[in-house]
Amino acid sequence: MPLPPLRRLAARLLLLAVSAGLGLLVAEVAVRLVRPQAVMVVSPGLYEPDPPRRYRLHPGFRGAVTNRVEFDDSVAINSLGLRGPEIGPKAPGTLRVLATGDSFTFGVGAQGAGTWPARLEKILRARGMRAEVLNAGAPGFGVPDEVAWYEWWGRPLQPDVVLVQVFLANDLQDAAPGPKVEVRDGALVVQGEQRRSLSRWLYYHSHLFVLLKNSSLGGPMRRFLGLPEPLEQRELRTEMSLYAKAGLPGPLQAGAAATERAVALLARDAGRIRIQAVIVPSVLQVDPARWRAALERFGLDAAKYDPNRPNEVFHEIFSRHGIPVLDLSETFRAALARGERIYYPIDQHLTPAGYERLAEKVAATLQ
């Protein structure tokens, strides 16, 4: 007996749904095997609120940081909220170095012993110095966050040297007023972002979704749905505004002003400790091919942009307060020209080789 029309329609729709589901499943498996997509994934619980400051690393955390393609690193946070082993009271005759900074000091892309503070300690000790280097880096921090953390948590550690690491691509953005990341359920979330939306879940769990999102199809589809451009593209567009010879846009000027206020506060301790700024360039600034590609991507006139412009901004800020600056730009530019792999191609954090190069230059400056 033939099925009633409604039941036939329901059966066809069910068959179509099953076929589509199987097709998506096969496509997902194929993408994971052939072209896995890089997405930064952090074990829940790395961060905790730290009022009146924004946040800090959660003491005692154990987990991992991975982008699923280029690195998968274990992370251990000690009872003081520092990445690395537990430390005791400062021993007499020990040079205690406190390294503050963002994800580059924290060491995204490296195991604990491969971060530049850990490598710096090893180098100094190998050269006969009784040194101890503490890693106070926290992803997403700008200079105002680092100084606020130091004022409350860092000064009691009695450092002899404080290193302030700056990442040129986003430190002014991180210091600027406006929407910030905040801690929800131990994770960093952009203010206003839905923590448990379907698109967010797919972004972290589906390689196929990320591939389509980042493909040429993603732009027209986002415009059709009235969605803003992807976060990665917005961040790159903002970074390019740093390099405009005409000057910084308003929000970044505010970020520079906030950075200067923080540096002035930190400089008050310069009479009893040594303070050193360490500038880490973006790969765009030191890789000519990536620089040209970024200009072409947004249709920018190369004559109106200077990759060294943010260097000048930070040099001026620190020099006004008597803080010396170690700028790694020329070192990294020369390393890339020699073919050294010091940045991850996708993630663009430093590789272990890049962190080693950074630690060597800082060690030479300290000695």
Protein architecture, described:
The chain has 15 helices and 12 strands. It has 367 residues and is of the alpha/beta class. β2 and β3 form a beta hairpin. The N and C termini lie far apart (91 Å). α1 packs across α7, α4 runs parallel beside α10 and α10 packs parallel to α13. The chain is 45% helix and 16% strand. Strands 7-6-8-11-12 form a 5-stranded parallel sheet, sandwiched between helices. The model has no long low-confidence stretch (mean pLDDT 87). It has 2 domains: 34 residues; 251 residues, 3-Layer(aba) Sandwich (Rossmann fold). The chain is globular.
Secondary-structure map with pairings?
Blueprint: H1 5-34, E1 41-42, E2 47-50, E3 53-57, E4 62-66, E5 72-76, E6 95-101, H2 103-106, H3 116-126, E7 131-137, H4 143-154, E8 161-167, H5 171-175, E9 181-184, E10 187-190, H6 198-205, H7 207-214, H8 218-224, H9 231-242, H10 250-267, E11 274-280, H11 283-286, H12 288-297, H13 309-320, E12 325-327, H14 329-337, H15 352-366
Parallel strand pairs: 6-7, 6-8, 8-11, 11-12
Antiparallel strand pairs: 1-4, 2-3, 4-5, 9-10
Helix pairs in contact: 1-7, 3-15, 4-10, 10-13
